[in-house]
Task: structure prediction
Amino acid sequence: MVGQANINFKGSIPALITPMFANGEVDYDSFQALIDWHIQEGSDALVIAGTSGESPTVSVEEHIHLIKEAVEYAAGRIPIIAGVGANSTKEAIHLQNNAYDAGAQAGLSVCPYYNKPTQEGMYQHFKTIAEHSPLPTLLYNVPGRTVANMSNDTILRLAEIPNIIGIKEASGDIARLGDLFSRKPQDFQVISGDDPTAAALILLGGQANISVTANVAPKLMHQLCMAASQGDIATVQRLNNKLSPLNSALFCEANPIPVKFALYKIGKTAELGYRLPLCQPSEQSQQTIIKALEAVELL
Result:
Protein backbone atom coordinates (compact mmCIF):
# COMPACT_ATOMS: atom_id res chain seq x y z
CA MET A 1 0.00 0.00 0.00
CA VAL A 2 1.28 3.45 -0.97
CA GLY A 3 1.32 5.74 2.06
CA GLN A 4 0.84 9.49 2.46
CA ALA A 5 4.36 10.38 3.56
CA ASN A 6 6.23 12.64 1.16
CA ILE A 7 7.22 10.47 -1.80
CA ASN A 8 9.50 11.01 -4.75
CA PHE A 9 7.54 10.79 -7.95
CA LYS A 10 9.19 9.43 -11.07
CA GLY A 11 8.53 8.47 -14.65
CA SER A 12 5.29 8.98 -16.52
CA ILE A 13 2.22 10.32 -14.72
CA PRO A 14 -0.89 10.60 -16.91
CA ALA A 15 -3.11 13.56 -16.14
CA LEU A 16 -6.13 11.30 -16.37
CA ILE A 17 -9.23 12.36 -18.27
CA THR A 18 -12.65 12.07 -16.70
CA PRO A 19 -14.55 9.78 -19.10
CA MET A 20 -18.11 10.87 -19.73
CA PHE A 21 -21.15 9.61 -21.55
CA ALA A 22 -22.50 11.61 -24.47
CA ASN A 23 -24.90 13.35 -22.08
CA GLY A 24 -21.97 14.63 -19.99
CA GLU A 25 -22.45 12.34 -16.99
CA VAL A 26 -19.31 10.71 -15.56
CA ASP A 27 -18.67 7.16 -16.78
CA TYR A 28 -17.23 5.50 -13.68
CA ASP A 29 -16.88 2.08 -15.32
CA SER A 30 -14.57 3.54 -17.98
CA PHE A 31 -12.80 5.52 -15.25
CA GLN A 32 -11.95 2.30 -13.41
CA ALA A 33 -10.97 0.56 -16.65
CA LEU A 34 -8.54 3.39 -17.44
CA ILE A 35 -6.91 3.04 -14.01
CA ASP A 36 -6.44 -0.70 -14.60
CA TRP A 37 -5.01 -0.07 -18.08
CA HIS A 38 -2.49 2.49 -16.84
CA ILE A 39 -1.29 0.14 -14.13
CA GLN A 40 -0.86 -2.61 -16.72
CA GLU A 41 0.96 -0.30 -19.14
CA GLY A 42 3.51 0.83 -16.54
CA SER A 43 2.36 4.36 -15.67
CA ASP A 44 4.08 5.50 -12.48
CA ALA A 45 1.27 7.53 -10.85
CA LEU A 46 -2.00 9.20 -11.88
CA VAL A 47 -3.30 12.74 -11.55
CA ILE A 48 -7.05 12.81 -10.93
CA ALA A 49 -9.36 15.77 -11.52
CA GLY A 50 -6.78 18.10 -13.01
CA THR A 51 -7.33 20.21 -16.12
CA SER A 52 -7.29 17.08 -18.29
CA GLY A 53 -9.97 15.71 -15.99
CA GLU A 54 -12.21 18.70 -16.77
CA SER A 55 -11.90 20.13 -13.28
CA PRO A 56 -13.41 23.46 -14.40
CA THR A 57 -16.74 21.78 -15.24
CA VAL A 58 -17.13 19.00 -12.66
CA SER A 59 -18.83 20.12 -9.48
CA VAL A 60 -16.91 20.32 -6.20
CA GLU A 61 -18.81 17.25 -5.01
CA GLU A 62 -17.92 15.31 -8.17
CA HIS A 63 -14.32 16.48 -7.92
CA ILE A 64 -14.01 15.10 -4.39
CA HIS A 65 -15.80 11.89 -5.36
CA LEU A 66 -13.51 11.25 -8.36
CA ILE A 67 -10.45 11.45 -6.10
CA LYS A 68 -12.02 9.19 -3.49
CA GLU A 69 -13.09 6.71 -6.17
CA ALA A 70 -9.60 6.64 -7.70
CA VAL A 71 -7.85 6.07 -4.37
CA GLU A 72 -10.25 3.33 -3.34
CA TYR A 73 -10.17 1.57 -6.71
CA ALA A 74 -6.40 1.83 -7.17
CA ALA A 75 -6.07 0.32 -3.68
CA GLY A 76 -2.38 1.12 -3.38
CA ARG A 77 -1.45 -0.28 -6.79
CA ILE A 78 -0.38 3.15 -8.07
CA PRO A 79 0.10 6.55 -6.37
CA ILE A 80 -2.77 9.00 -6.78
CA ILE A 81 -2.09 12.73 -7.07
CA ALA A 82 -5.24 14.78 -6.58
CA GLY A 83 -5.95 17.91 -8.55
CA VAL A 84 -6.73 20.39 -5.78
CA GLY A 85 -6.16 23.78 -7.36
CA ALA A 86 -8.55 26.72 -7.24
CA ASN A 87 -8.41 30.47 -7.68
CA SER A 88 -10.00 30.83 -4.25
CA THR A 89 -7.60 29.91 -1.44
CA LYS A 90 -10.50 28.80 0.75
CA GLU A 91 -11.78 26.40 -1.94
CA ALA A 92 -8.27 25.08 -2.58
CA ILE A 93 -7.88 24.26 1.13
CA HIS A 94 -11.25 22.49 1.09
CA LEU A 95 -10.22 20.35 -1.90
CA GLN A 96 -6.79 19.67 -0.43
CA ASN A 97 -8.15 18.46 2.90
CA ASN A 98 -10.73 16.25 1.22
CA ALA A 99 -7.98 14.71 -0.92
CA TYR A 100 -5.95 14.07 2.24
CA ASP A 101 -8.94 12.40 3.89
CA ALA A 102 -9.47 10.27 0.78
CA GLY A 103 -5.89 8.99 0.99
CA ALA A 104 -4.27 10.69 -2.01
CA GLN A 105 -0.46 10.73 -1.93
CA ALA A 106 -0.16 14.41 -2.93
CA GLY A 107 -2.14 17.38 -4.13
CA LEU A 108 -1.44 19.22 -7.40
CA SER A 109 -2.27 22.87 -6.83
CA VAL A 110 -2.35 25.19 -9.82
CA CYS A 111 -1.51 28.91 -9.75
CA PRO A 112 -4.72 30.85 -9.15
CA TYR A 113 -6.23 31.54 -12.56
CA TYR A 114 -8.18 34.50 -13.93
CA ASN A 115 -7.75 36.82 -10.94
CA LYS A 116 -4.05 37.43 -11.82
CA PRO A 117 -2.44 37.51 -8.36
CA THR A 118 0.94 39.15 -7.78
CA GLN A 119 3.98 37.06 -6.89
CA GLU A 120 3.35 37.87 -3.23
CA GLY A 121 -0.28 36.85 -3.64
CA MET A 122 0.76 33.50 -5.10
CA TYR A 123 3.24 32.98 -2.27
CA GLN A 124 0.61 33.72 0.37
CA HIS A 125 -1.95 31.50 -1.41
CA PHE A 126 0.25 28.40 -1.38
CA LYS A 127 1.72 29.14 2.04
CA THR A 128 -1.77 29.37 3.51
CA ILE A 129 -2.81 26.08 1.88
CA ALA A 130 0.28 24.37 3.32
CA GLU A 131 -0.48 25.75 6.77
CA HIS A 132 -4.02 24.37 6.68
CA SER A 133 -3.43 20.92 5.21
CA PRO A 134 -0.95 18.10 5.91
CA LEU A 135 -1.20 16.77 2.34
CA PRO A 136 2.13 17.03 0.44
CA THR A 137 1.73 19.67 -2.25
CA LEU A 138 3.04 19.90 -5.79
CA LEU A 139 2.81 23.44 -7.14
CA TYR A 140 1.63 23.78 -10.74
CA ASN A 141 2.83 26.59 -12.99
CA VAL A 142 1.01 26.70 -16.34
CA PRO A 143 0.93 30.31 -17.54
CA GLY A 144 -0.66 29.34 -20.86
CA ARG A 145 -3.80 28.42 -18.91
CA THR A 146 -3.74 30.70 -15.88
CA VAL A 147 -2.03 33.88 -17.18
CA ALA A 148 -0.30 34.04 -13.78
CA ASN A 149 3.35 32.95 -14.20
CA MET A 150 5.01 32.03 -10.92
CA SER A 151 8.61 33.25 -10.89
CA ASN A 152 11.52 31.05 -9.88
CA ASP A 153 12.12 33.33 -6.90
CA THR A 154 8.57 32.66 -5.67
CA ILE A 155 8.96 28.93 -6.27
CA LEU A 156 12.18 28.91 -4.24
CA ARG A 157 10.51 30.76 -1.36
CA LEU A 158 7.75 28.16 -1.34
CA ALA A 159 10.27 25.31 -1.55
CA GLU A 160 11.34 26.21 2.00
CA ILE A 161 7.91 25.14 3.33
CA PRO A 162 8.20 21.48 4.44
CA ASN A 163 5.10 19.97 2.84
CA ILE A 164 5.53 21.77 -0.48
CA ILE A 165 7.52 19.01 -2.14
CA GLY A 166 7.87 20.08 -5.76
CA ILE A 167 6.42 21.70 -8.84
CA LYS A 168 4.81 20.69 -12.10
CA GLU A 169 6.41 23.16 -14.50
CA ALA A 170 4.49 23.53 -17.76
CA SER A 171 5.97 26.72 -19.19
CA GLY A 172 8.19 24.76 -21.61
CA ASP A 173 10.92 27.35 -20.99
CA ILE A 174 14.18 25.42 -20.79
CA ALA A 175 16.24 28.50 -19.84
CA ARG A 176 13.91 29.13 -16.91
CA LEU A 177 14.25 25.49 -15.88
CA GLY A 178 18.04 25.67 -16.00
CA ASP A 179 17.94 28.56 -13.54
CA LEU A 180 15.53 26.69 -11.27
CA PHE A 181 17.68 23.53 -11.22
CA SER A 182 20.77 25.55 -10.37
CA ARG A 183 19.15 27.10 -7.28
CA LYS A 184 16.55 24.67 -5.92
CA PRO A 185 16.97 22.53 -2.79
CA GLN A 186 18.18 19.04 -3.63
CA ASP A 187 15.00 17.32 -2.43
CA PHE A 188 12.58 19.70 -4.20
CA GLN A 189 11.02 17.78 -7.10
CA VAL A 190 10.71 19.32 -10.55
CA ILE A 191 8.21 17.56 -12.79
CA SER A 192 7.42 18.38 -16.40
CA GLY A 193 3.93 19.42 -17.41
CA ASP A 194 4.82 19.90 -21.07
CA ASP A 195 5.06 16.76 -23.22
CA PRO A 196 7.28 18.19 -26.02
CA THR A 197 9.99 19.26 -23.53
CA ALA A 198 9.50 16.53 -20.91
CA ALA A 199 12.54 14.44 -21.87
CA ALA A 200 14.74 17.54 -21.86
CA LEU A 201 13.52 18.47 -18.38
CA ILE A 202 14.25 14.99 -17.03
CA LEU A 203 17.70 15.00 -18.64
CA LEU A 204 18.37 18.28 -16.81
CA GLY A 205 17.56 16.58 -13.52
CA GLY A 206 13.78 16.43 -13.35
CA GLN A 207 11.92 13.51 -11.85
CA ALA A 208 8.89 12.86 -14.02
CA ASN A 209 6.35 14.03 -16.57
CA ILE A 210 2.71 14.75 -15.74
CA SER A 211 1.43 14.07 -19.20
CA VAL A 212 -1.51 14.49 -21.53
CA THR A 213 0.02 12.19 -24.16
CA ALA A 214 0.43 9.39 -21.60
CA ASN A 215 -3.37 9.12 -21.49
CA VAL A 216 -3.19 7.60 -24.97
CA ALA A 217 0.33 6.12 -25.16
CA PRO A 218 1.17 5.21 -21.55
CA LYS A 219 3.77 2.54 -22.28
CA LEU A 220 5.68 4.71 -24.77
CA MET A 221 5.69 7.70 -22.42
CA HIS A 222 6.84 5.55 -19.52
CA GLN A 223 9.68 4.19 -21.66
CA LEU A 224 10.67 7.72 -22.74
CA CYS A 225 10.75 9.01 -19.17
CA MET A 226 12.76 6.02 -17.95
CA ALA A 227 15.26 6.40 -20.80
CA ALA A 228 15.69 10.09 -19.98
CA SER A 229 16.19 9.38 -16.28
CA GLN A 230 18.87 6.83 -17.19
CA GLY A 231 20.61 9.16 -19.66
CA ASP A 232 19.93 6.83 -22.61
CA ILE A 233 20.09 9.52 -25.28
CA ALA A 234 19.61 7.21 -28.29
CA THR A 235 16.38 5.79 -26.85
CA VAL A 236 15.20 9.27 -25.84
CA GLN A 237 15.70 10.53 -29.38
CA ARG A 238 13.92 7.55 -30.94
CA LEU A 239 10.91 7.65 -28.63
CA ASN A 240 10.65 11.43 -28.57
CA ASN A 241 10.58 11.49 -32.37
CA LYS A 242 7.92 8.78 -32.40
CA LEU A 243 5.70 10.62 -29.92
CA SER A 244 6.19 14.09 -31.40
CA PRO A 245 3.22 13.97 -33.86
CA LEU A 246 0.94 12.80 -31.06
CA ASN A 247 2.18 15.48 -28.67
CA SER A 248 1.26 18.07 -31.29
CA ALA A 249 -2.08 16.57 -32.34
CA LEU A 250 -3.35 16.36 -28.78
CA PHE A 251 -3.18 20.14 -28.58
CA CYS A 252 -4.75 20.92 -31.97
CA GLU A 253 -7.67 22.18 -29.87
CA ALA A 254 -7.88 22.99 -26.18
CA ASN A 255 -6.99 20.12 -23.85
CA PRO A 256 -8.76 17.77 -23.11
CA ILE A 257 -10.87 17.93 -26.27
CA PRO A 258 -8.39 16.02 -28.50
CA VAL A 259 -7.23 13.47 -25.92
CA LYS A 260 -10.79 12.43 -25.08
CA PHE A 261 -11.49 11.95 -28.79
CA ALA A 262 -8.27 9.92 -29.14
CA LEU A 263 -9.17 7.62 -26.25
CA TYR A 264 -12.63 7.06 -27.68
CA LYS A 265 -11.15 6.21 -31.10
CA ILE A 266 -8.82 3.58 -29.62
CA GLY A 267 -11.67 2.04 -27.65
CA LYS A 268 -10.71 3.08 -24.13
CA THR A 269 -13.96 4.90 -23.30
CA ALA A 270 -17.50 3.71 -23.93
CA GLU A 271 -18.76 7.02 -25.30
CA LEU A 272 -17.38 10.42 -26.26
CA GLY A 273 -18.65 12.99 -23.80
CA TYR A 274 -17.72 16.53 -22.76
CA ARG A 275 -19.28 19.26 -20.69
CA LEU A 276 -19.94 22.64 -22.20
CA PRO A 277 -18.19 24.88 -23.01
CA LEU A 278 -16.03 21.99 -24.25
CA CYS A 279 -17.40 20.13 -27.26
CA GLN A 280 -16.31 17.61 -29.89
CA PRO A 281 -13.32 18.52 -32.09
CA SER A 282 -13.87 19.79 -35.61
CA GLU A 283 -13.70 17.35 -38.53
CA GLN A 284 -10.28 18.72 -39.47
CA SER A 285 -8.99 18.21 -35.92
CA GLN A 286 -10.42 14.70 -35.84
CA GLN A 287 -8.44 13.79 -38.95
CA THR A 288 -5.28 15.30 -37.43
CA ILE A 289 -5.72 13.19 -34.30
CA ILE A 290 -6.46 10.02 -36.26
CA LYS A 291 -3.33 10.46 -38.38
CA ALA A 292 -1.21 10.94 -35.25
CA LEU A 293 -2.70 7.80 -33.67
CA GLU A 294 -1.86 5.87 -36.83
CA ALA A 295 1.70 7.25 -36.79
CA VAL A 296 2.33 5.74 -33.34
CA GLU A 297 0.51 2.52 -34.32
CA LEU A 298 -2.37 3.00 -31.91
CA LEU A 299 -4.89 2.72 -34.76
Notes: The longest helix spans residues 233-249. The mean pLDDT is 96. The beta strands are 11-14, 46-48, 80-83, 106-110, 137-141, 164-169, 189-192, 208-211.
